[in-house]
Amino acid sequence: MKLAKRIKKLEPSVTLAATAKVRKLKAEGHNVIGLTVGEPDFTTPDNIEEAAIEAIKSGKVSFYTAAGGTPELKEAIIQVTKRDYGLDLEPNQVIVTSGAKFALYTLFQTILDPGDEVIIPVPYWVSYGEQVKLAEGVPVLVETKLENEYKITVEQLEEALTDRTQAILLNSPSNPTGMIYTEDELRAIGEWAVEKDILIISDDIYARLVYNGKHAPYMASLSDEIAKQTIIINGVSKTFAMTGWRIGYAIGNAEIIKGMASIVSQSTSNPTAVSQAAALEALLGDQSTVREMRIAFEERLNTIYPKIAALPGFKLKKPQGAFYLFPNIKGAMELGGYDNVTTWVNDLLEQEHVALVTGEGFGAPENVRMSYSSSMEDLEEAVVRIRRFIENSQ
Ligand code: PLP
Q1: Atom 7 (ligand 1) nearest CA
Q2: Whether residue 199 sits in one domain with residue 66
Q3: Is the ipTM here above 0.90?
């Protein structure tokens, strides 16, 4: 059967593939510790589930909603964005989508012509580059350094700039590195983007999962000019343990948002009505579970980070947000005579039944991603097994 060229070129998500592999091994009865998932291990808080059940019973969610989301949910997004970012928004600057991933997808489809470039700092979240390519754009991948906490600088942006540069993509806190940009760093990039008239895509999906008493500054809060230049991507998946509900949103320039809504109207029609009702409760209801989940992640990070950092041949800085560790394991690979991180990850899974994600899908062939969205027991046991694997491979 003939397939389109774009499908032949498309890399499937390495994180979803790794998680599927773990599920399969577990189903076959293997004692696998999977640290591959990109989602909280908590279930959705009760108040949100109950709001969804009530919405179903009311019959109101039997029907299509507006393509860009229900007026109530958009209003809630406007309210929390005022609270968190200090921004005053109109409903035509907000679109609700089937997950933040689809917000990004429709955004690229809306802003890119063939050959238009998007600057993406490396390591990057696995879907960014592939989504740019699906829109016939060109991902311009810029390497960042562990010493600079894997953050891009204005000098690097300047070097990457061409007359086809359409946008830059920032994700703070970052998946996979867990690093956050300081306000000064964001301001420097924001002012540069305003001066060059480059759109800033600010993926803030992990902004409420920040640890060690820090907080993640928001690009769009820094000035009116920067806010006008920024599209915010956000959603309920990570903050409220709602990955399965598929509700994300984008905020920004009304013309871009209108374009995105047209794509939604011709593709998914609207995000699922019952999930929108649940997201409304998530945003406006009791927020105590957000804090509880954040504290649980922070405890795991503080327990597990020193143990991971002490593994032979592992190098990393302590993450400040999200729920991933992204060590450079070049030293550990060398100890075992490995020259390929994916082979190292596969051997670890085969010999010690610990599943990590290869850094290759994130553009980092010396790193692995390990999610600490798992029980403390599993995390502690994983460290024991990884250490044994490294020692046995020497
Ligand atoms: N952005 C980043 C950096 C992510 O890690 C994810 C999910 O893994 C998303 C966006 C998409 O989230 P969702 O589509 O579940 O809203």
Answers
A1: 38
A2: yes
A3: yes
